[in-house]
Amino acid sequence: METLTLHEDARSGNCYKIRLTAALLGLPLERKSYDIMAGETRTPDFLANVNGNGRIPVLQVGNRRLPESNAACWYLAEGSALISADPWDRADMLRWMFWEQYNHEPNIATLRFWLAIVGEGNLTELQRAQLPAKRAAGEDALALMDAHLAAREWFVGGQTSLADIALYAYTHVSEEGGFRLRDYAHVRTWLDRVAALPGFIPMD
Amino acid sequence: METLTLHEDARSGNCYKIRLTAALLGLPLERKSYDIMAGETRTPDFLANVNGNGRIPVLQVGNRRLPESNAACWYLAEGSALISADPWDRADMLRWMFWEQYNHEPNIATLRFWLAIVGEGNLTELQRAQLPAKRAAGEDALALMDAHLAAREWFVGGQTSLADIALYAYTHVSEEGGFRLRDYAHVRTWLDRVAALPGFIPMD
Q1: pLDDT exceeds cutoff 80 at A1
Q2: How large is the average pLDDT for residues B144-167?
Q3: Which of A151, A166, B145, B176 has the fewest C-beta atoms under 10 angstroms from its C-beta?
Q4: What is the pTM of this model?
């Protein structure tokens, strides 16, 4: 395989997903760090040469660049057991990955970013006004996960898949955004299950 | 293939994506309608039997149910030319589909929903406060698409893929949300290209 380089900020769960996928698969990954808070992903050089969308993570494969965390995980995991060979399970895995980006990340990851990284005192008025709605939507997301995991060990098809990795990334640090994982017993058991996988690496 | 039923609201671009994918592939699709505005996707019956997340679309395949529009499109298109056989192109297609759900839909589709369906006079104070940021983010999304399409006919790999279908759905009705497509010449040409595909069906 060509050299794999991850353009990342180590505090980002979206970046961690890709490192965790690579670790579980035993793939070596070079890392190039950017400080989101210092605007390092919005420079003309970054926009022209790494990602015109001004965001990390970007997975670089040789000279090609792939933005979007879940797409990068997919690229690394193609042909591995982290993507089921069953068409229904594969689509259902993507269902949870799209759900993660639409219903989970914008609430759970954003509250962590705002409260633990930006700092509540530094939020804009508009950000502050959005806190209650994002809190409620984040709780709904955790409750949906908890209900789903009540009768299952993994999100899809009885085996570890990218759906688990994508959802682990920001769920396991959700308390930094003020969520209480003790309210979600099935989620906590599943987090322990992910952390016990052979090859697992922690976020930091 | 088992009977395919789409649980939908005909005004939703996310639902239209699935109908358009099925049409391009010549797959028959039964339709079951819900009125989002009347709360028909939040009833106890819907939450228990269709989608615990309270959202449409849901693609029903026999007795199994698949939420998330882009996952449903993937399920229908597996093995077809709408998903490239090349691993890079497949991941790059997913990249645009994840980008659509994270950067495009929450801005461009939400403004259309708020302004053309809910009505500006019925918005909450918090929704109204978010209009400028969503307007700017939606313009950024259209500009990124326009730049990408300046040198390409299709989003990925020189052929029509699910990335085009996913992005077509809300882009072609973005003027209902107050965006001006005349500012994006490459996007307009691409919209015409999609609408000329054999088997294409319009949204209504």
Answers
A1: no
A2: 97
A3: A151
A4: 0.97
Reported confidence tier of residue B1, pLDDT bands at 50, 70, 90? low
Question: Which residues, other chains included, contact A120 with Cβ-Cβ below 8 Å and sequence gap of 6+?
Answer: A114, A128
Residues 10-49 of B with CB under 8 A from A: none
- The answer to whether the CB of A103 falls within 8 A of the CB of B54 is no
Q: What is the pLDDT of residues A62-75, one digit of tens each?
A: 999 999 999 999 99
Interface predicted TM-score (ipTM): 0.97
The verdict on a CB contact (< 8 Å) between A98 and B68 is: yes
Query: Who among B68, B94, B105 is closest to A71 (CB)?
Result: B94
Question: What's the pLDDT tens digit per position in B16-65?
Answer: 999 999 999 999 999 999 999 999 999 999 999 999 999 999 999 999 99
Asked if B66 reaches chain A (Cβ–Cβ under 8 Å), the answer is: yes
Is A71 in contact with B61 (Cβ distance < 8 A)? no
Q: Which long-range contacts (CB under 8 A, 24 or more apart) does B148-151 make?
A: B148/A52, B149/B186, B149/B187, B149/B189, B149/B190, B150/B186
In this prediction, residue B125 carries a pLDDT of 96
> CA of A169 to nearest chain B CA: how many angstroms apart?
17
Q: Closest Cα partner for A19 from A68, A57, A52?
A: A57
Tokens linked to A13: 């769960």
Contact with chain B for residue A70, Cβ under 8 A: yes
Mutate which of B55, B61, B90, B94 to disrupt the A interface (most A C-beta within 10 Å)? B94
